[in-house]
Structure of LacI family DNA-binding transcriptional regulator:
Amino acid sequence: MRATGRPTLAGVAERAGVSLKTASRVLNGEPNVADGTREKVRLAAAALGFRRNAVAADLARGGASRLLGFISGDIANPFYSAVAGGIERVAREHGLHLITTSCEEDPARERLLTEELLERRVRGLVVTPTPAGHDHLAGELAAGTRLVFADRPAAGLAADSVVIDNPGGVRAAVRHLTAHGHRRIAFVGDNPEVWTFRERRAAFAGAMSDAGAPGAERWVRPGAHDAGTARALVTDLLTAPEPPTAILAENNRVTEGALRALRAVPGGDDVALVGFDDFPLADLLGVTVVAYDAAELGRRAADLVVTPGPAASSPRTETVPTRLIPRGTGERRPRA
Amino acid sequence: MRATGRPTLAGVAERAGVSLKTASRVLNGEPNVADGTREKVRLAAAALGFRRNAVAADLARGGASRLLGFISGDIANPFYSAVAGGIERVAREHGLHLITTSCEEDPARERLLTEELLERRVRGLVVTPTPAGHDHLAGELAAGTRLVFADRPAAGLAADSVVIDNPGGVRAAVRHLTAHGHRRIAFVGDNPEVWTFRERRAAFAGAMSDAGAPGAERWVRPGAHDAGTARALVTDLLTAPEPPTAILAENNRVTEGALRALRAVPGGDDVALVGFDDFPLADLLGVTVVAYDAAELGRRAADLVVTPGPAASSPRTETVPTRLIPRGTGERRPRA
DNA sequence: CTGTTAGCGCTTTCAG
DNA sequence: CTGAAAGCGCTAACAG
């Protein structure tokens, strides 16, 4: 008894009065079939409403399925969905489909999802890793699994990755602000567990030092994981004695919070603001940002997945460039 | 010769000195296995780095794979990604993974993707349909495939669907504007092929008529498929003789274009604006909108997919409510 | 040009 | 508690 009621290749073959293999050949568009036979099989397939079972086909071919996996923090987040769009585009060019999943920044869930996708025999995996260690994947990597990390490298695992040019972006922002006369620049960002935060923070300290304003660490405010806390931190900064004249927001959630704080605090309109990450309608709001192409991040990651590196090579790391877009808030000068 | 170098269940069984079936039982956590045997198998599996092949397992079970498909217009679009997030959440509760694809609003591509996902034997499919006919899926539906349309119903096919409360949202917007004294209200929207446009446009005409301002069709401007054309259309409207005192933007791209037009046209600050669809930072921009929960749309669609309707029932249609959020632009009164 | 014989890696009867 | 045999639906040699 068939488990599903669906017509099978065997059914088509029988109805057409040919062998299984011949039916297979026709339905796969292979050559060397008589036109008449071809037609008979086509008719039988149509009459039965036959649809080939790609799962069985993949299995028989013995290889991986035609699927790519993407483990993101949250697929509903526009940043990740832009990355997913980039991955999908490349996947499509290679005849692959994309399975998208969200781990909610939870290491345990990331690991579970990785396991499940691997069991599904995906062709490769793009992961935006949580801060947890990833050494448990070393064996998988050695076995030849195509694994690429996006936006940040995996802790404790030498694997291909593609990241944003964080240092370059932050340096550009700091230079922009100091060129406009700022010395007291605050850096407000996410939690220190987050790799991108640490990268950007380090670049900030370095750039400030280069600008002849060392000791900038004192202007660093971590812990703004959402717009609400960012707003509170910025408000605190601005209402304390000797407030900063400029804010460098480490990501778009912080930028949003900073924007709200600047609106609410008296004199906030005079405080300069540069945000890392562009966002929709930022031009209407006049917000100066450090922008980059998130879809490009996805495209490059997918390229790395589908393009095996030179055997036994060391991990490849690619960098997506950033550019500063002046729109107003970043060009405010400190009050004399 | 094995096609892949991966360890198989047979390999584990051999190494553990048990039969295939026993190894299977252990690795699937089935009961009735002696503790010692269980341990032996576990050890063998670990030593080999065994990972079960979920594809083969699904096939052997004869059913569909544990995958759900989502065919959207563009996964990089925040609206669709919010929907995807909702679908994924429900899918996860049912132990399913989500394959996301983008058809770029192209009917041929939508059809191709549908075929491919069906060949992959997905458990069910959520589709945001292009305007093309979908009668080719009638057989599939009859065969029991779980198919649900989201955001708009499929043309020419009686299938389950979940949509936004378009009439309610538009009526609320019109009532809001007329209550603030507006009579000359323009409705700017997408192309007439788009189902949501037609729904909203019809509701607009009805609501205007109800408000004692019939003949509103003359204030309707279709054809704004992107923010650029929307901006041009709104600029034309405002610079013509007897310009409208209020704009109802049919979707968020139109709202964006209208916003830019209002900024650029002299006196644009006095024109009221209500947009259908909420968007990030709309509050900072002070834009009054008709909002709804896109993730809820996805959740409900996924619910319909995993919950078979009463056999032979007529298609189920669900509606996601909207609500008007006043933020400033919608409360401007016409100049005396 | 067409068919036969083996599997892919796993699950399921149904006997021991 | 354990195993042998039969298949899921399809593809891949290798003959004819």
